[in-house]
Amino acid sequence: MSAGNGSGWALVTGASSGLGVEFARLLAARGRNLVLVARSVEALETLAAELTAAHRVAVRVAALDLSQPDAAIELKRRTDGLGLRVDTLINNAGFGVHGEFVEADSRRLQQMLDVNVSALTQLARLYGEDMRRRGDGRMLLVASLLGFMASPVYAAYAATKAYVLSLGEALHDELAPHGVTVTVLAPGLTDTAFTRTAGHEASATLKLMLMQPRPVAEAGLRALDDGRACVVPGVLNKLSAWSTRITPRAMHRRIMQALLA
Ligand SMILES: NC(=O)c1ccc[n+]([C@@H]2O[C@H](COP(=O)([O-])OP(=O)(O)OC[C@H]3O[C@@H](n4cnc5c(N)ncnc54)[C@H](OP(=O)(O)O)[C@@H]3O)[C@@H](O)[C@H]2O)c1
């Protein structure tokens, strides 16, 4: 990363693929300067070149493994060192582990907790403190539709997203009086590298709910603009989330197990 200018920056984690790329494109189209974070440095550099050329914004690349201890502290140290004032945090990086819980690679499970929960929390904590002090800032936390319901075969992943949903909605209320907007985006199945990374071949039934990443990212940014606590993009996904309020929890689990197998 090289030094930045005086205006605010939007930081997008998981910007090398899928939803993160779309968040970055949409923010760049709004004229926002960007910090792009992920491990795949080539993909980040390619996106940075595309956005700089198309929108004349400043883009910095931070190659970082967010599963490493203190990765969030290291990222904050880098952006502070460059004098970048991050006023928008898109806490998007994450991945799933599909299959029987007790058969999962335990190191992979731990990395998932480190990225989806620990790094996301520490980033919200570190950048949130600055935002509250300035009385201005915006944070989008990417959860999942699975955060609304216990989901066999995605058991630990769904639990990480229940955490993100709960954290984000609580922070929405804590930080709103200080001028900071916190919004949770809870997507359903979206056409990214997610299922491949998770080791999951989605069924034809599940694919009926598939959304493209662009409208999902747009829904997240729109909800952030509108100051909402949470948004579930897509009519079918909205219906699924809503149905969890009126149906027994055991029924959600059985439906999710059948749908996600
Ligand atoms: N697609 C879906 O169906 C779906 C549904 C609900 C929620 N979500 C959530 O949406 C978010 C974005 O996922 P996606 O669908 O866009 O999947 P994706 O295409 O696989 O993108 C995941 C992003 O996370 C980054 N990432 C993963 N591990 C990382 C690590 N250790 N350090 C730094 N970055 C890391 C990846 O970058 P590198 O590999 O380059 O590091 C990549 O940029 C995730 O939080 C996911 O849980 C997705």
What small-molecule ligands were found? Answer: NADP nicotinamide-adenine-dinucleotide phosphate
> What proportion of the residues is helical, as a percent range?
40-55%
Number of strands: 7
> From N to C, what is the helix and strand string?
EHEHEHEHEHEHHHEHH
Average pLDDT, all residues: 95
- Biggest β-sheet description: 7 strands, parallel
The CATH fourth-level homologous superfamily: NAD(P)-binding Rossmann-like Domain
N→C terminal distance: 42 Å
Please work out how many helical segments DSSP would assign: 10
What is the number of independent domains? 1
CATH architecture: 3-Layer(aba) Sandwich
Structural class of the secondary structure composition? alpha/beta
Strand content: 5-15%
Uncertain spans? 1-6
User: What's the CATH first level?
Assistant: Alpha Beta
Q: What is the alpha-carbon Rg in Å?
A: 18 Å
